[in-house]
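tool_call: predict_structure(chain=1)
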Amino acid sequence: MATTGINDTNSERRRTVAFRAMRNTQLIIGFGMIGGMAFAAVVLPHLLGLDPQAVEPLNRLKAPSLAHFLGTDNFGRDLAARILAGASTSLRLAASVTLLAAAIGVAVGILASFSRLLDHVLMRICDGLMAIPALLLALALTATFGPKFSNLLIALVIVFVPGIARLVRARALALRSETFVEAAVAMGASDLHIMGRHIFPNVLSVLAVQVTFLFAETIVIEAALSFLGAGVPPPAPSWGNILYDGKAAIAKAPYMVLFASTAMVMTVVGLTLIGDGLRDLVDPRSGSQPEASWSKRLLRLVLPCTKEGA
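tool_result:
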C-alpha cells in the first residue's frame, strides 16, 4: 500500500509538471524557435539542394533574389546555404560542449563535495580558470591547441566545466545536510550509493536550467572565436565566419551581416526562453506570474539596462 501511494504521488507530480510545462509561454516559444532552427538546418539544405561550398565567381555579392533568396557572399556562395550549414555547425558544437562539460562538471562537483582534499584542489583549479574571462580563455586555448574543430570543442569544454562544477558542488553540499541523506548515512550507505541514489538525481533540476544558458553561451563564444579567426577554420560554414566575411563588404552587402546575426540572435533568444521556462518549472516561486515574468525577462534580454521593477 505504501509503495502504491508513493507511485501515485510521483505520477501526480509528473502530471502537474507536464501541465505547467504546456502552459509555460516562454518554454513553448523557446522550443518552437530552436526546433524550427534545427529543422531548417537539417532538412532545408537537402530539400532545396543547397550547397554551402559551391562558388560562383560571377555572382559575387548578389542581393537576395529567386535564385539566391538570401543573396550571395563575396565568393559567390549561396548565403542561405551557408547560414543553415552554420546553424548545423553551431548547434552540433554547442550540444557536444554542453553534454561533455555537464558530465565532467557534475563528476567534479559531486566528488569535491565528498572529499575535503579533492574539494581544495579541484575548486582552486576552477577558481583559477574562472578568474579569466571565458572568451579570453577560449582564445588562448584554441591558439595553443590549433585551429581544428576537435580542439575548439576541447577548449570550450575546459572553459565551461568550472562553472558547472561549482554549481553542482554547492547544490551537493546543501543536499548532504538534508534529512534523507543523513538517514542514508546513519543506515551505513556508502558514499558511492549516496552520490548515485540521492545527490545526482537532485542536482539534475538545477543542472537542466544551467545547461540551456551554457548552450547559448557556447554559440556566442564560438561565433566570436570564428570571427577572430580562432574558431571553426574556413571555408567551413560558421556564423562567425560569415560575419567576418560580411565585415569587409558591409557597405555593399549589409544583408550578409544582418541575416547571419539574426539567425544567431534568434537561436540565443530561444535558448534563453527555454532556460527561463525550465527555471519556472524547477522553482515555481521564481515565476509566480508567468506571463509578466516572461515579458520582463524578454525585455531585459533585448534592453539589458532595464531594471527589475520597470
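agent: The chain is about 75% helix and 0% strand. Proceeding to next step.
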